[in-house]
Each structure stands twice: as structure tokens, then as C-alpha cells.
Request: fold
Amino acid sequence: MALTSSYFDEGALIGVLTTQPLDRVLDYRAPEGGCHLGAFVEVPLGPRKVLGVVWGPGQGDYDISKVRSVIRVLDAAPMREELMSFLTRAGDYTLTPMPAMLRLATRAPGLGDPPSMRKIYRLGDCAPDRMTDARTRVLDVLREMGGLSLTLKEVAEAAGVTTSVVKGLVKQGAVREEDSPRDMPFPTLDPTYAGKDLTADQSTASATLRAAVATRSYGTTLLKGVTGSGKTEVYLEAVAECLSQGRQALVLLPEIALTAEFLTRVDARFGAKPAEWHSGVTITERRRVWKMTAQGGAQLVVGARSALFLPFRDLGLIVVDEEHDTSYKQEDGVLYNARDMAVLRASICGAQVILASATPSLESWANADAGKYTKLELTSRFGAAVMPDMRAIDMRNEQLPSSSWISPTLQRAVQQRLDNGEQALLFINRRGYAPVTICRACGHQIGCDHCDARMVEHRFLKRLVCHQCGETKPMPNTCPSCEAEDKLAAVGPGVERLAEEAQTLFPDARLAVLSSDMFGSARALKAEIETIASGGADLIIGTQLVAKGHNFPLLTLVGVIDADLGLQGSDLRAAERTFQLMRQVAGRAGRADKPGQALMQTYQPEHPVIRAILSGDEQDFWTAEAGERRAAGVPPYGRLAGIILSSTDVQEVFDLGNALARNDGPLRRVGAQVFGPAPAPIARVRGRHRVRLLVKAPKGTALQPALAEWIKPFRLKGELRMAIDIDPQSFY
Ligand code: ADP
Ligand code: ZN
Reply:
């Protein structure tokens, strides 16, 4: 986009991209007073008014007499060309229509509204007619606060009075009531506020990162370091450098539950808290963050992957913490990988990217190996902490009663920790009470009515839950198939059942169960995590949720109930995931001054992945894993795209799948191959039949344009849906 077309005079023909699902940019006329390229506007579309962005000059191919005018330019900073270009390229990469991309960038309701106001209170000029204790306290509070503005509730609370006391003083002119915009800038972060003394390793890494940020240009660094080595401390130094440059920084975390601890660390390092962006943030606050990133009133944003689409004024650094985490890949709606999109956006806006992890993805490992990313390593834990001693418990030699999962060896180890007043963690990557509910009379397994999936019993919720579609139903008393009474039995362990067993084995231990479905809110979960960290529990029973970066200083033993669980899948990343997960979980132990131990229950201790986990020889593991992927021509050494078709009509999905497979000319021309159609591993979800095709191509193939050309002739009518997943992470 040339600079010459960055402003359009009144009446000029302009192209407006809207958030409506139309396949083109629409022509309009610039409104009275003209408008800038990138301006957020309201335009008429049929009988409605919709949100749009001025995307460029109009195309002029629409009946000129019918072109309507922009209704108004919204009160928001125009979208910068950098973000327009990012949305376009991210859309091209993920084959996502532009209106859907624009929706990602405008997830702040009312973003064009004039700033909403609230009442604030300051010291007035007059003295009140008579003084009371309550009145004196109010005036004292306001005097102490100096220039700070407080709301009615804040003043009343701070003075310990009712709001009517404050209002009485307003009437007399002793207190001033003023209107102030809600969308206030965030408190200023001071990059020199309180840096820590870094270890030699940390200083080297920090200096390299600071120098990179100082170049004010693009680059990606893989910051690899064992859990507890100080990666966060080190990347906060890069954030400090970025803030000193006057540029903005973004830190992505894979899990909302991790934000609270992180905010506290930012506060300690920079003297104030950053802006927060995730699904747990209120709508008003989201709008404030959106506006302030655009105006430069937010120096640092901490958030979930969607924060990548905020309208930063001058983004200089993106940190992707726990970069290997699978939650960075959006699995519904727009299918994008936040890690890859972070690199794309940074390359467009001249920013640095830091990918931090103890167990990087094979993709990042390969990119670092190939010299595309700089690699920094922190090899030892901070302070006295050492990596835990890791051992297998060979389950073939353990005597276990039926329906129990904690082996005698593990039980003894846990008991020992409890006797020492230390914490232990038992890990199982399965939510709910039991994965299967079976009828002992007829063998029927209770399934979901809408999916080809078993329903999982959740005793905590007192319901059966489908983990595919979320459908729940009460646990029946009679078998739905043979109607036998009281014959339904739980089979296999989930986190709730493991907790039950643990409570029986260790009746005196205070138990804490951590599973994502057990907390109504992020706040409740945060409170539980804090309780655990401060020693309010002796034994923690948890799912994957505990693997993600929490600091439990008193924890010295981690027991993995089923280390083999992840190895069973046919997923190409099964080995990688198991390796990462086991090492992350083990990394929870011994983070402070007491050494930790990790014990893994396995039936196949000689499996290469289990052996690699135990030996801790990462280089060997990655080299072997890379070798296998290279030989198979799969990512990161080849390209994949998944096509998922679905419909309520099974014939219709297969017909489309077959037609796609037959007409694969555009793909063959670039050297790509189509596999399928085949029923998806979960062949029915929410009553829709699912069929998958897989496209495989050599590395370096320009796959997206070929895919676009391939699917173009196929019109999706009626119930048919098609989703394209570039670089798929899961294959369900
Ligand atoms: P990681 O992100 O690699 O897991 P953290 O940055 O969370 O590691 O560091 C682990 C713990 O050690 C934290 O409590 C952190 O504050 C502390 N720590 C790390 N480096 C230092 C340092 N140089 N000085 C003081 N404390 C440190
Ligand atoms: Zn279901």
C-alpha cells in the first residue's frame, strides 16, 4: 500500500473490509471530512449498519450510482498498515477469509463508542458547615491521595464511611465530583525499578536478548532452560529493554491460571501491573486494553493468543512462554498457531520474538538447529534447586489390587514425603472420575447421543460428560441398553477417582485436586493454586493443568500414574507430547532448596521415549525424533494440511470427500498428495459426521495457493462444512 493513498477526501471511492461474511471488500464513498486508510468506520449494508475498516481505494466495479456513503468514522485510532498487512498474510497462511481475520482484530465490543465516563472525587475548595469524624476521615483520605482520582466506592471504603457522607460533602462544595473517562492509560512501568542480580548464565542470555531488542528489528530467539532456571527473569530483562526503547511488549501465556503469578512478578520488577487480555477480563476492561494498545497507553500486555491481534502502536517484543504448549493452536474458529503468528507479526513490525520453554517443540528446535532462530540455554536451576531424580516404576513387578492405580512403591514414596512434612503430587492426564461406564450385565458402554465417544463420569459434577461436545446427562440407575438395575460400573481411573484412592491410602493428608473442570472461575483456581503454593495441602492430585509452570516450592515428589498413556495414540506428535509433558510434570518437583524426585509408573520401561525421559538425554531424543520425521517427510521436514468435512448427512460428506480426492490436479501440480477421505477418528461429533483428508507436500511447497485453487470449485451447500487446518496439531 503506497503512502499516497493513505487519505481519502470526502466522496472518494474507498474499499471497506467488514466483519460480515462476504467474499470481497465493498465500495463506499468517503464521508464528510474524508477518512484515513485503516480508519474504523460504520457503513450501511442492506438495512443494517456494520463495522468495517477502510482497506484501500474502491475497486470501482460496482454500479457507481448505487455506492453508498460511510455513515461515520469511529472514535478509534486507524488500523496501522502493519496490522493490515499482518491480517492479510495470516489470512493467506491459514486460508481464512478476511472478514473472519478482521473479527479477530476487533474483539472489543463498543470499540468505536465515545469514551464512557465515570464519576471521580477530589478535594474541593469550600469548608463544610460542620465537621464530624466521618467527614474528617473523608477529607483526610482525599488529601493523602493527592492528585489520584477515586470513585465514590473507593473513597467511602478508604474512609470507612457510607457513600452518603461523601455525597453530603459534595453538596457543600468540600468535595468535587468530576467526570473522567474510563479508558484510562495503564500505570507506567519503570524498566529500572527493581532488576535482580542475575547469575552468570542468566546475564549472558539477558545481554544477548537486550542487544537483540535494541536493534529494533526482527529476530527470533529460542530461550531454552530447565524449569526453574530463571527464563522468566531473563525475558523480563528483554521486556525492560523494550520499554526503555519506548516500544510496547506482549507476553503470551498458555493458561489464564498462570497470569496472576505473572502479574505479581511484573509488579515486583517494574513497579506496576501490565494490561491483561484474555477471556476472563471484563468487556469494559477489554475495550480499555484495545484502545490503550492503539494509543500507546499500555506498555506491556499479558495475555492469551488472541492478544496477538491487538492494535499495538509500536510493538517491539513478543514473548511466547511455554512455546511448546498445544493450547497455542486454536482448535476452533480460525485455526492458527499463535507461536507461528507471533513470528509473522514480529517480522512485519520489526520486533523480536522470544520463544521460552524447558521442552521446546520439535519445530522450534529444528529452526534453531537450522540457524533461523538464535538459541540461548540456561542449563541449571536457580539457587540450590537441582533437577529431580527421575525413575521408572516397572508396573509388571508391582502387586496392585483391582481398581487401584497407586503402586506399593509409589505409596511408600508418598508416605515418606508426607512424614517429612513435604508435598507430593500425583499426576494423571484424565479429567473426571472414570473414562468408561460399563454395564456389568450386558457389557454396554454409555456413549454420547451426538458423538462417537464414550461419556465420562464426573462425580464432582454428579453427571456424565461428553468430552467432545460437552453434553451432560445424569448417571442413570438402569442400563440404557438392557435395563438391568444397579449394574453400571466405573472402569479406569480419572483424576477424581485417583483422589478417592489417595484419600483412602493417606487418610491424614490434606488433599488438593487440580483439574480444569473443577473450578467455576479463574479466580477460584488461582486461589487454590496459591493455597497449595503456601503449604495449604500435603498431596496434590492433578491433570495436565499442574504441568504448566506453577511454582510449588514445598513439592519434592511427583508420581506419574500412567506414563504410557500418551504413547498409545497414532498421532505423529505422540512421542514429542509425552516427552514434553513428563518432563514438565517432573520439573514441578524440587524447585526450591529441597531436592525432588519423579517416579513414573510404566508397563514398558524399555520404550525409547520412556528411556529418553528418564535419562534426560534430550539431544538424543530430539535427534532420533527428527530422524523419524525427516524419513516420513512430515513436519517440520514436510508440510501437512488437514481438511475436515462434516455434515448431518453421512453420504453428503463422503461424496464431497471423494470429489475432492478425484479432482486433485492443483495439488499434484505442486507435488502435493491427497490421502483419504477417511472417517475421522471421532467420526461423529454433535450429530455431525466427520470425514478427513490429509494433504502432504515436500517442505518449501507453496501449499496454500494450491489448496485455495483446489477447493475453489466446490460450493458448500446446505449442511456441509469444510475446515482447513494448516500444520495440524491434532488429528481427531
Ligand atoms: P523459569 O521461568 O525458567 O521456570 P523462573 O524465572 O520462574 O524460572 O525462576 C524460578 C525461581 O527462581 C523464581 O522464583 C525466580 O524468582 C527465582 N530466580 C531466578 N533467577 C533469579 C535471580 N537471578 N535472583 C533471584 N531469584 C531468581
Ligand atoms: Zn458428545
